[in-house]
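User: Sequence for RING-type domain-containing protein below. Tokens please.
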Amino acid sequence: MDCEICFEPFSDNLGNHVPIIFPDCGHSFCKSCVDSLENRKCPKCRKTRFQPHEINVEVVEFIQTNARPVCGGCASEYNIEGNHNPRILPDCCHTICSTCIDDIADVEIGCPTCFNPNFISLFDSECFIKNYLLIEIVRNY
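Assistant: Structure tokens for RING-type domain-containing protein:
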């Protein structure tokens, strides 16, 4: 699994090649490439990013364990076609499945990864951005 800008493999440490997710669009690139970007646009989709980018924790965990990714909320394996596709929580940038988002709509929950509160309004899970690098991992697993 490589960065789409520099083609270097992602790493599981906090060095220059740790995967960084853009929460406004769901794309991920290595820290070195993100740090060198001159504008606030995603290099893949060109969407302007307003939220700060974060480490793609779920991808780092996959690199460390090489185990099939599971939702931190319900422990179900992520899938692409079904109802457990990976979605980004808006406030902390961690990922849970679309089923968990639909189940907890209109409540404040603690993120299963960082325990920070995230308010999930009445929106359907389809309104939440997908974690595209995690989807690619699930597709190829």
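DSSP finds four helices and seven strands in the chain.
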